[in-house]
Amino acid sequence: MNPSLGIAYKVVSVCLFVAMASCIKAASDGLPTGELVFFRSVVAMPVIVVWLLWQGKLATGLRVKSVFGHVLRGVMGTSAMGLIFYAIGVLPLPEATAIGYAAPLLVVVFAALFLGEKVGVFRMTTVAIGMVGVLIILAPRMTVFGDGEHHELAVAAIAAVVGASLAALAQIQIRNLTRTEETAAIAFWFAMTATGLSALTLPFFWVMPSAEQFALLFAAGVLGGVAQILLTSAFKVADASLVAPFEYTSMILTIIVGYVWFDEIPTVLMLIGASLIIAAGIAIVLRERHLGLQRGAARRHRTPHG
Protein backbone atom coordinates (compact mmCIF):
# COMPACT_ATOMS: atom_id res chain seq x y z
CA MET A 1 0.00 0.00 0.00
CA ASN A 2 1.17 3.52 -0.82
CA PRO A 3 -1.18 6.14 0.68
CA SER A 4 0.62 9.16 -0.80
CA LEU A 5 0.54 7.69 -4.29
CA GLY A 6 -3.13 6.74 -3.86
CA ILE A 7 -4.03 10.30 -2.90
CA ALA A 8 -2.03 11.64 -5.85
CA TYR A 9 -3.82 9.31 -8.27
CA LYS A 10 -7.18 10.33 -6.83
CA VAL A 11 -6.55 14.08 -6.99
CA VAL A 12 -5.27 13.88 -10.58
CA SER A 13 -8.26 11.74 -11.57
CA VAL A 14 -10.62 14.31 -10.05
CA CYS A 15 -8.91 17.09 -12.03
CA LEU A 16 -9.24 15.06 -15.23
CA PHE A 17 -12.92 14.25 -14.59
CA VAL A 18 -13.62 17.97 -14.08
CA ALA A 19 -11.79 18.72 -17.32
CA MET A 20 -13.84 16.01 -19.05
CA ALA A 21 -17.11 17.46 -17.73
CA SER A 22 -16.02 20.92 -18.87
CA CYS A 23 -15.34 19.62 -22.38
CA ILE A 24 -18.75 17.91 -22.45
CA LYS A 25 -20.46 21.10 -21.32
CA ALA A 26 -18.62 23.22 -23.89
CA ALA A 27 -19.45 20.75 -26.69
CA SER A 28 -23.05 20.04 -25.69
CA ASP A 29 -24.77 22.97 -27.41
CA GLY A 30 -26.98 21.49 -30.13
CA LEU A 31 -25.68 17.92 -29.79
CA PRO A 32 -27.92 15.04 -28.63
CA THR A 33 -27.03 13.49 -25.29
CA GLY A 34 -26.65 10.02 -26.81
CA GLU A 35 -24.02 11.39 -29.16
CA LEU A 36 -22.10 12.90 -26.22
CA VAL A 37 -22.11 9.54 -24.43
CA PHE A 38 -21.04 7.73 -27.61
CA PHE A 39 -18.00 9.92 -28.22
CA ARG A 40 -17.03 9.81 -24.53
CA SER A 41 -17.21 6.00 -24.55
CA VAL A 42 -15.79 5.10 -27.95
CA VAL A 43 -12.76 7.39 -27.60
CA ALA A 44 -12.04 6.00 -24.12
CA MET A 45 -12.03 2.41 -25.40
CA PRO A 46 -8.51 2.46 -26.93
CA VAL A 47 -7.20 4.09 -23.75
CA ILE A 48 -8.63 1.28 -21.62
CA VAL A 49 -7.41 -1.43 -24.03
CA VAL A 50 -3.86 -0.03 -24.03
CA TRP A 51 -3.96 0.09 -20.22
CA LEU A 52 -5.10 -3.53 -20.02
CA LEU A 53 -2.38 -4.58 -22.48
CA TRP A 54 0.25 -2.73 -20.45
CA GLN A 55 -1.02 -4.46 -17.30
CA GLY A 56 -1.08 -7.82 -19.10
CA LYS A 57 -4.78 -8.14 -18.28
CA LEU A 58 -6.48 -7.89 -21.65
CA ALA A 59 -7.42 -11.58 -21.59
CA THR A 60 -8.80 -11.07 -18.08
CA GLY A 61 -10.78 -8.05 -19.29
CA LEU A 62 -12.38 -10.10 -22.03
CA ARG A 63 -13.37 -12.95 -19.72
CA VAL A 64 -16.98 -12.80 -18.51
CA LYS A 65 -18.78 -15.04 -16.03
CA SER A 66 -22.00 -13.07 -15.54
CA VAL A 67 -23.22 -11.67 -18.86
CA PHE A 68 -26.49 -10.44 -17.38
CA GLY A 69 -24.64 -8.76 -14.51
CA HIS A 70 -22.46 -6.79 -16.93
CA VAL A 71 -25.43 -5.84 -19.09
CA LEU A 72 -27.36 -4.63 -16.05
CA ARG A 73 -24.40 -2.60 -14.80
CA GLY A 74 -23.93 -1.23 -18.33
CA VAL A 75 -27.55 -0.15 -18.74
CA MET A 76 -27.61 1.61 -15.36
CA GLY A 77 -24.19 3.21 -15.80
CA THR A 78 -24.84 4.37 -19.36
CA SER A 79 -28.24 5.79 -18.42
CA ALA A 80 -26.64 7.61 -15.49
CA MET A 81 -23.94 9.01 -17.76
CA GLY A 82 -26.52 10.28 -20.24
CA LEU A 83 -28.63 11.99 -17.60
CA ILE A 84 -25.60 13.54 -15.93
CA PHE A 85 -24.23 14.77 -19.26
CA TYR A 86 -27.60 16.36 -20.04
CA ALA A 87 -27.57 18.06 -16.63
CA ILE A 88 -24.01 19.27 -17.14
CA GLY A 89 -24.97 20.82 -20.45
CA VAL A 90 -27.90 22.77 -18.98
CA LEU A 91 -27.09 23.50 -15.33
CA PRO A 92 -24.18 25.51 -13.96
CA LEU A 93 -21.24 23.11 -13.64
CA PRO A 94 -20.87 23.41 -9.83
CA GLU A 95 -24.59 22.76 -9.35
CA ALA A 96 -24.61 19.62 -11.50
CA THR A 97 -21.49 18.41 -9.67
CA ALA A 98 -23.01 19.04 -6.24
CA ILE A 99 -26.17 17.09 -7.05
CA GLY A 100 -23.98 14.26 -8.32
CA TYR A 101 -22.46 14.02 -4.84
CA ALA A 102 -25.75 12.44 -3.75
CA ALA A 103 -24.67 9.17 -5.39
CA PRO A 104 -22.33 8.00 -2.57
CA LEU A 105 -25.03 8.81 -0.03
CA LEU A 106 -27.62 6.83 -1.96
CA VAL A 107 -25.21 3.88 -2.12
CA VAL A 108 -25.60 3.61 1.65
CA VAL A 109 -29.39 3.41 1.33
CA PHE A 110 -29.34 1.00 -1.60
CA ALA A 111 -26.77 -1.23 0.09
CA ALA A 112 -29.17 -1.63 3.00
CA LEU A 113 -32.13 -2.29 0.70
CA PHE A 114 -30.55 -4.62 -1.86
CA LEU A 115 -27.46 -6.09 -0.19
CA GLY A 116 -28.80 -6.43 3.32
CA GLU A 117 -25.98 -4.33 4.80
CA LYS A 118 -26.57 -3.08 8.32
CA VAL A 119 -26.84 0.70 8.42
CA GLY A 120 -26.69 2.35 11.83
CA VAL A 121 -28.25 5.54 13.12
CA PHE A 122 -25.10 7.57 12.42
CA ARG A 123 -24.94 6.72 8.72
CA MET A 124 -28.68 7.18 8.17
CA THR A 125 -28.57 10.54 9.94
CA THR A 126 -25.67 11.74 7.80
CA VAL A 127 -27.44 10.51 4.66
CA ALA A 128 -30.54 12.45 5.69
CA ILE A 129 -28.44 15.60 6.21
CA GLY A 130 -26.87 15.15 2.79
CA MET A 131 -30.26 14.71 1.13
CA VAL A 132 -31.46 17.91 2.81
CA GLY A 133 -28.53 19.55 1.03
CA VAL A 134 -29.78 18.14 -2.28
CA LEU A 135 -33.27 19.51 -1.60
CA ILE A 136 -31.82 22.95 -0.82
CA ILE A 137 -30.10 22.96 -4.22
CA LEU A 138 -33.22 21.72 -6.00
CA ALA A 139 -35.72 24.04 -4.30
CA PRO A 140 -35.13 27.14 -6.48
CA ARG A 141 -35.44 25.01 -9.63
CA MET A 142 -38.69 23.33 -8.60
CA THR A 143 -40.45 26.58 -7.72
CA VAL A 144 -40.20 27.73 -11.35
CA PHE A 145 -40.84 24.33 -12.95
CA GLY A 146 -43.72 25.61 -15.08
CA ASP A 147 -41.93 28.78 -16.16
CA GLY A 148 -40.97 28.41 -19.82
CA GLU A 149 -37.62 30.16 -19.43
CA HIS A 150 -36.58 28.03 -16.45
CA HIS A 151 -38.36 24.80 -17.34
CA GLU A 152 -35.29 23.18 -18.88
CA LEU A 153 -33.22 24.02 -15.80
CA ALA A 154 -35.79 22.26 -13.62
CA VAL A 155 -35.83 19.22 -15.91
CA ALA A 156 -32.03 19.14 -15.87
CA ALA A 157 -31.99 19.26 -12.06
CA ILE A 158 -34.35 16.28 -11.92
CA ALA A 159 -32.19 14.50 -14.51
CA ALA A 160 -29.14 15.06 -12.29
CA VAL A 161 -30.93 13.49 -9.31
CA VAL A 162 -32.09 10.49 -11.33
CA GLY A 163 -28.61 10.17 -12.81
CA ALA A 164 -27.07 10.16 -9.32
CA SER A 165 -29.56 7.49 -8.25
CA LEU A 166 -28.71 5.29 -11.23
CA ALA A 167 -25.00 5.83 -10.60
CA ALA A 168 -25.53 4.63 -7.03
CA LEU A 169 -27.39 1.56 -8.29
CA ALA A 170 -24.53 0.90 -10.72
CA GLN A 171 -22.12 0.97 -7.77
CA ILE A 172 -24.26 -1.60 -6.00
CA GLN A 173 -24.15 -3.77 -9.11
CA ILE A 174 -20.37 -3.40 -9.26
CA ARG A 175 -20.21 -4.74 -5.71
CA ASN A 176 -22.21 -7.75 -6.86
CA LEU A 177 -19.97 -8.24 -9.89
CA THR A 178 -16.75 -8.15 -7.88
CA ARG A 179 -17.79 -11.43 -6.26
CA THR A 180 -17.26 -13.28 -9.56
CA GLU A 181 -15.66 -10.82 -12.01
CA GLU A 182 -12.23 -9.21 -12.28
CA THR A 183 -11.89 -5.42 -12.10
CA ALA A 184 -10.40 -5.39 -15.61
CA ALA A 185 -13.49 -7.15 -16.99
CA ILE A 186 -15.85 -4.72 -15.24
CA ALA A 187 -14.01 -1.70 -16.68
CA PHE A 188 -13.69 -3.12 -20.19
CA TRP A 189 -17.23 -4.37 -20.61
CA PHE A 190 -18.77 -1.20 -19.22
CA ALA A 191 -16.91 0.80 -21.87
CA MET A 192 -18.11 -1.67 -24.51
CA THR A 193 -21.71 -1.59 -23.27
CA ALA A 194 -21.79 2.21 -23.05
CA THR A 195 -20.43 2.47 -26.58
CA GLY A 196 -22.96 -0.03 -27.93
CA LEU A 197 -26.01 1.41 -26.17
CA SER A 198 -25.22 5.00 -27.08
CA ALA A 199 -24.53 3.95 -30.69
CA LEU A 200 -28.14 2.73 -30.91
CA THR A 201 -29.31 6.34 -30.56
CA LEU A 202 -27.17 7.68 -33.42
CA PRO A 203 -29.47 6.76 -36.37
CA PHE A 204 -32.32 8.65 -34.68
CA PHE A 205 -30.47 11.53 -33.03
CA TRP A 206 -27.38 12.61 -34.90
CA VAL A 207 -26.01 16.07 -35.43
CA MET A 208 -22.69 16.54 -37.22
CA PRO A 209 -20.29 18.12 -34.69
CA SER A 210 -18.28 21.14 -35.69
CA ALA A 211 -14.49 20.82 -35.73
CA GLU A 212 -14.35 22.49 -32.30
CA GLN A 213 -17.03 20.21 -30.86
CA PHE A 214 -15.31 17.13 -32.26
CA ALA A 215 -12.02 18.19 -30.67
CA LEU A 216 -13.77 18.77 -27.32
CA LEU A 217 -15.52 15.37 -27.48
CA PHE A 218 -12.29 13.60 -28.40
CA ALA A 219 -10.56 15.31 -25.47
CA ALA A 220 -13.44 14.31 -23.16
CA GLY A 221 -13.06 10.67 -24.16
CA VAL A 222 -9.31 10.62 -23.58
CA LEU A 223 -9.58 12.53 -20.30
CA GLY A 224 -12.36 10.27 -19.07
CA GLY A 225 -10.47 7.10 -19.97
CA VAL A 226 -7.25 8.21 -18.26
CA ALA A 227 -9.18 9.49 -15.24
CA GLN A 228 -10.92 6.11 -14.84
CA ILE A 229 -7.57 4.32 -14.94
CA LEU A 230 -6.08 6.64 -12.32
CA LEU A 231 -9.16 6.24 -10.13
CA THR A 232 -8.88 2.46 -10.32
CA SER A 233 -5.16 2.70 -9.53
CA ALA A 234 -5.85 4.92 -6.52
CA PHE A 235 -8.06 2.28 -4.91
CA LYS A 236 -5.46 -0.39 -5.63
CA VAL A 237 -2.61 1.31 -3.79
CA ALA A 238 -4.49 2.96 -0.92
CA ASP A 239 -7.54 2.34 1.26
CA ALA A 240 -10.81 3.60 -0.21
CA SER A 241 -11.63 5.39 3.04
CA LEU A 242 -8.40 7.38 2.71
CA VAL A 243 -8.71 8.55 -0.89
CA ALA A 244 -12.52 8.92 -1.16
CA PRO A 245 -12.80 12.33 0.58
CA PHE A 246 -10.54 13.89 -2.04
CA GLU A 247 -13.45 13.51 -4.49
CA TYR A 248 -14.86 16.69 -3.03
CA THR A 249 -11.95 18.80 -4.26
CA SER A 250 -13.89 18.77 -7.52
CA MET A 251 -16.28 21.35 -6.06
CA ILE A 252 -13.50 23.91 -5.79
CA LEU A 253 -12.35 23.10 -9.30
CA THR A 254 -15.85 23.30 -10.83
CA ILE A 255 -16.48 26.66 -9.18
CA ILE A 256 -13.25 27.99 -10.68
CA VAL A 257 -13.84 26.46 -14.12
CA GLY A 258 -17.50 27.50 -14.11
CA TYR A 259 -16.58 31.10 -13.36
CA VAL A 260 -13.60 31.37 -15.73
CA TRP A 261 -14.87 29.32 -18.71
CA PHE A 262 -18.67 29.55 -18.50
CA ASP A 263 -19.19 32.79 -16.57
CA GLU A 264 -21.15 30.94 -13.85
CA ILE A 265 -21.43 32.26 -10.31
CA PRO A 266 -22.71 29.80 -7.67
CA THR A 267 -25.67 30.93 -5.59
CA VAL A 268 -25.65 31.01 -1.80
CA LEU A 269 -28.25 28.23 -1.64
CA MET A 270 -26.15 26.05 -3.93
CA LEU A 271 -23.10 26.55 -1.72
CA ILE A 272 -25.09 25.78 1.44
CA GLY A 273 -26.59 22.63 -0.07
CA ALA A 274 -23.23 21.48 -1.46
CA SER A 275 -21.61 22.04 1.94
CA LEU A 276 -24.19 19.80 3.64
CA ILE A 277 -23.75 17.06 1.02
CA ILE A 278 -19.96 17.18 1.24
CA ALA A 279 -19.99 17.22 5.05
CA ALA A 280 -22.29 14.18 5.09
CA GLY A 281 -20.14 12.31 2.58
CA ILE A 282 -16.91 12.99 4.44
CA ALA A 283 -18.52 12.05 7.78
CA ILE A 284 -19.58 8.66 6.41
CA VAL A 285 -16.14 7.96 4.94
CA LEU A 286 -14.32 8.97 8.14
CA ARG A 287 -16.73 6.92 10.25
CA GLU A 288 -16.13 3.85 8.08
CA ARG A 289 -12.38 4.38 8.27
CA HIS A 290 -12.56 4.60 12.07
CA LEU A 291 -14.64 1.43 12.30
CA GLY A 292 -12.30 -0.31 9.88
CA LEU A 293 -9.29 0.57 12.05
CA GLN A 294 -11.12 -0.69 15.12
CA ARG A 295 -11.97 -4.00 13.41
CA GLY A 296 -8.37 -4.36 12.27
CA ALA A 297 -7.07 -3.75 15.79
CA ALA A 298 -9.54 -6.29 17.18
CA ARG A 299 -8.36 -8.93 14.70
CA ARG A 300 -4.71 -8.31 15.58
CA HIS A 301 -5.37 -8.71 19.30
CA ARG A 302 -7.68 -11.69 18.99
CA THR A 303 -6.41 -14.90 20.55
CA PRO A 304 -5.90 -17.98 18.32
CA HIS A 305 -9.05 -19.46 19.84
CA GLY A 306 -11.08 -16.29 19.21
Structure explained in plain terms:
By secondary structure, this protein is mainly alpha-helical. 80% of the residues lie in helices and 0% in strands. The chain is built from 13 helices and no strands. Helix 4 packs across helix 9. The protein is globular. The chain starts with a helix and ends in a 5-residue tail after the last helix. 44% of the residues are buried.
Brief digest:
The chain has 306 residues and is an all-alpha fold. Helix content is 80%, strand content 0%.
> Alpha-carbon distance between the termini?
28 Å
Reported for the largest beta sheet, the result is:
none
Low-confidence stretches at least 5 residues in length (pLDDT < 50)? none
Q: Strand share of the residues? A: under 5%
Question: Compute the gyration radius: what is it?
Answer: 20 Å
Identify the overall geometry: globular
Order of helices and strands: HHHHHHHHHHHHH
Q: How many beta strands in the DSSP annotation? A: 0
Topology:
Blueprint: H1 3-27, H2 33-55, H3 58-62, H4 67-90, H5 93-100, H6 102-114, H7 121-142, H8 148-177, H9 183-199, H10 211-237, H11 240-243, H12 249-262, H13 268-301
Helix pairs in contact: 1-4, 1-10, 1-12, 2-4, 2-9, 2-10, 4-5, 4-8, 4-9, 5-12, 5-13, 6-7, 6-8, 7-13
